[in-house]
Write a structure and sequence with these properties.
The chain has about 675 residues and is an alpha/beta fold. The chain is built from 17 helices and 29 strands. The strands form 7 sheets. A 6-stranded mixed beta sheet has the order 14-13-12-15-17-16, with helices on both faces. A 6-stranded mixed beta sheet has the order 28-27-18-19-20-29, sandwiched between helices. A 5-stranded mixed beta sheet has the order 2-1-7-3-6, with helices on one face.
């Protein structure tokens, strides 16, 4: 392989390399350690190695992908598609060969170690007041002496028997109305939608006779990386099932601005991304209904939360304006639509509610977090951090609330890390390093045992040790700092400086060996200095956003911190503090809210009054745009050090003493401190 050979970039892993023309995609994936499944030895039989190539301009990756970047569709792929089916745009990795620079997405079902989508439903007491309710009525039969339409008599029965106000129905209800009434002998159960307590009612659906089965709603958190859906019983509020799926837009760009750029650089690119997310949303809904064994047509209400770029792409709006100042939204108000308006294959009258956005870079997901965590009702000053590819931050109390977003990028998700991966069985998620021996011990997803405990090898026999997920890389870097392997500026020391052979020369810098599974055909897992830099950039962006909000409040400390988001739920507060991800605070006052955006979506789904509440709250939240704040860069530079080169962390210092190190000595020795220059 040479640099003149075509460049192949795999998503979502971010792994890349140059390969000779004619190299099968599956071969390239294996050589790079990309998680692409195959059991038939490349014969085109098993279909496990399906991939999705992307074409067009990719400024983030610095490549232009032409339509002939892969070899032509061949007879093996055609035979497989004709017999078993193949999603349009998919190729078999064992058959497609590299002909030019290309960006290739590995969909979740093609990954050996499929991601554990952790956006579960959090336990929460929610006042039940849904927008959709069932009403059983007996309708007067038609009379030639008093002629009126069946709909009019149905509405009259509802008003009389249930004391309801204005009621209407759309055409799709009228087409089945007469058959349903007569089949039920003029007794029917009606699903009525009422957007607010004082709003008119709309007939969504009819059942002959008394319908005694549940009706459902979906609360959906549409994230940049993952999409999570919670299926809720609208009559009991119970979460019947929860499921998640990877956002297929990752192949167009791991971060939001890359997706905006893809839409700008490629004609029809925004529409392509809209189709991708709607298609996978429908697949997710089918999946969750199968898991819960329910009829999908019984889903009559849906609520969505998402960041502004995902908001626009889901709605079918080109997010071009969000890519440049003043970052104007097409609309920031809440939206009340039919699910069919969004291309969702649910019942034709199913309703969709999208929470309001706060600002151009602070979306409906942040509004959902505000609804869930209610900083505006807090007596103390609380910082709420929704950690993800694009982090949203809220700081406030009863007096006022401020919000901003910070582009942390995908490093916290394990992307752009040399041994990084999504959260899946076999991924390292918890780590400690002995400060004397520098030896690591760790836990992987799928096992409760530590790597130095008896039975560990047997416990991971199926999954193996495969890489490092987001929570794992945060703990690793923090542990490396605490044990003297990494200095404050972020340099990994040499074997001589650190006193361990696990540190080894790797080009112009050093790397740290975490796990060597090569003897058993497994991966060699290391942390490189580039990995440290990726984490430094991500955590500096997060901290700088928090610091800007604190500047606006005129404070240097906060009373408590809430880590939100599916990823935030798995972050160790101690390690986050050591890294300098979050401001100095008593560790006992750093808590996790789990998937707060998803919880906010459930609150809005199950309590229509909460929708009006958050719409009012959002209008009062102050917006801080980090992109134009002059002090953001200053805070960012300071926060690039571990934990920080300017801001003290006195509370943390009472519990954790960090080694005073600087490995930039200009030589391999020196004991770790910078040498003084002679005058």
């Amino acid at each position: 392989m040479t640099k003149s050979d075509p460049l192949v970039i795999f998503t979502p892993s971010g792994k890349r390399g140059n390969f000779a023309v004619g190299t099968p995609v599956l071969t390239a994936a294996r050589q790079l350690g990309v998680d692409l499944d195959s059991v038939c030895g490349g014969r085109g039989i098993c279909s496990r190695c399906q991939i999705t190539p992307s074409y067009g301009e990719f400024p983030k990756h610095g490549v232009s992908v032409s339509k002939d970047a892969l070899s032509e569709w061949n007879s093996v792929e055609e035979r497989y598609k004709s017999i078993r089916g193949l999603i349009d745009g998919r190729r078999l990795g064992c058959q497609a060969k590299i002909e030019g620079d290309v960006v290739i997405d590995v969909p979740p079902e093609s990954q050996v170690h499929k991601q554990v989508v952790r956006k579960r439903a959090e336990a929460r007491d929610i006042t039940l007041n849904p927008t959709v309710r069932l009403y059983y009525v007996e309708v007067e039969q038609p009379d030639m002496h008093e002629p009126s339409g069946d709909l009019e008599r149905l509405i009259a029965a509802l008003k009389d028997q249930w004391k309801l106000g204005e009621i209407s129905a759309d055409l799709s209800v009228l087409t089945s109305l007469q058959t349903t009434l007569r089949k039920g002998e003029w007794k029917v159960t009606v699903a009525l939608h009422q957007a607010a307590d004082d709003a008119p009612h709309t007939i969504l659906r009819l059942w002959s006779g008394f319908f005694d089965s549940p009706i459902y709603g979906l609360a959906v958190d549409l994230g940049s990386t993952t999409i999570a859906a919670h299926l809720c019983d609208l009559q009991t509020g119970e979460v019947t099932a929860s499921s998640g799926i990877m956002n297929p837009q990752i192949r167009f760009g791991e971060d939001l601005m890359s997706r905006v750029s893809y839409g700008m650089m490629n004609e029809g690119g925004a529409d392509e991304m809209t189709r991708a997310v709607r298609d996978v949303m429908n697949a997710l809904f089918d999946q969750i209904c199968d898991e819960a064994s329910i009829d999908k047509s019984h889903i009559l209400d849906t609520v969505f939360v998402c960041n502004p770029v995902m908001h626009h792409l889901f709605l079918g709006i080109d997010p071009y304006e969000l890519g440049q100042a003043p970052f104007a939204l097409a609309t920031s108000d809440a939206l009340r639509l039919k699910a069919s308006d969004l291309g969702l294959t649910l019942h034709p009258e199913t309703r969709s509610y999208i929470l309001p956005c706060i600002a151009g870079h602070v979306g409906a997901d942040a509004a959902a977090v505000a609804l869930s965590e209610a900083p505006d009702k807090s007596d103390d000053l609380v910082l709420v951090v929704d950690v993800g590819t694009n982090a949203e931050l809220l700081l406030g109390n009863r007096e006022r609330v401020l919000a901003c977003s910070s582009p942390t990028g995908p490093a916290f998700e394990g992307a752009q890390i040399s041994s990084g991966q999504r959260a899946a069985p076999g991924a390292i998620e918890h780590v400690t390093i002995d400060p004397v021996t520098k030896e690591p011990r760790f836990q992987v997803i799928g096992s409760d045992l530590w790597s130095d405990e008896d039975g560990f090898d047997a416990a991971i026999a199926v999954s193996g040790v495969t890489g490092i997920c987001g929570s794992g890389i945060i703990e690793l870097v923090a542990e490396m700092r605490m044990s003297g392997i990494v200095d404050g500026p972020g340099l990994i020391g040499s074997a001589e400086q650190t006193g361990t052979a696990r540190c080894f020369a790797d080009g112009r810098t050093n790397s740290y060996m975490v796990w060597d599974g090569s003897a058993d055909g497994g991966p060699v897992i290391t942390v490189t200095n580039r990995d440290i830099r990726e984490i430094q950039m991500a955590k500096a962006a997060l901290y700088s956003g928090a610091r800007l909000l604190m500047d606006k409040f005129g404070v240097d400390t906060v009373d408590r911190i809430v880590l939100a988001g599916a990823f935030g739920a798995h972050i160790s507060p101690k390690h986050a503090m050591v890294l300098g991800m979050i401001p100095d605070c008593a560790l006992s006052m750093v808590t996790s809210a789990g998937n707060a955006a998803g919880t906010g979506a459930r609150i809005a789904l199950l309590n229509r009054s909460a929708r009006g509440e958050i719409e009012t709250t959002v209008r009062k939240i102050g917006k801080v745009e980090t992109a134009i704040e002059p002090r953001f860069q200053e805070h960012f530079v300071n926060a690039s050090a571990i934990p920080n080169s300017a801001d003290p962390f006195p509370i943390m210092a009472t519990r954790i003493t960090l080694p005073d190190l600087n490995f930039n000595t200009g030589s391999g020795g020196g004991g770790g401190r910078r040498r003084r220059r002679r005058g």
